[in-house]
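TASK: fixed-backbone design
INPUT:
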């Protein structure tokens, strides 16, 4: 007499559906409004700070010549010319700034 293992338990073990291991966490809907408000607020603060900064410092270092006022030659490093973007003034007007360097007549 051989102990007959009942095959029903084996098939039941194989056929058991594996539970879904990873379930994406349900995102909280309705919280996006606060995030957008925060972004808008940050953008507004940044814009105000930028406007104030432009009024305080309307000029910036010329990026074309890196503040040297001269543009050096690429091939012959000893050669140079006046920077065309800033005209040799080594500075350029920031976007949004007005040219306030005009002579006022009193
Ligand atoms: Zn320049």
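OUTPUT:
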């Amino acid at each position: 007499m051989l102990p007959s293992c009942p095959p029903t338990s084996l098939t039941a073990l194989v056929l058991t559906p594996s539970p879904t291991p990873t379930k994406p966490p349900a995102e909280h809907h309705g919280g996006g409004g606060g995030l957008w408000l925060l972004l808008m607020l940050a953008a507004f603060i940044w814009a105000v700070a930028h406007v104030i900064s432009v009024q305080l410092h309307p000029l910036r270092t010329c990026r074309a010549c890196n503040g040297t006022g001269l543009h050096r030659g690429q091939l012959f490093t000893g050669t140079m010319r006046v920077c065309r973007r800033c005209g040799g003034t080594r500075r350029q007007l920031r976007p949004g700034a007005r040219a306030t360097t005009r002579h006022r007549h009193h």
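COMMENT: Residues 55-96 form one domain.
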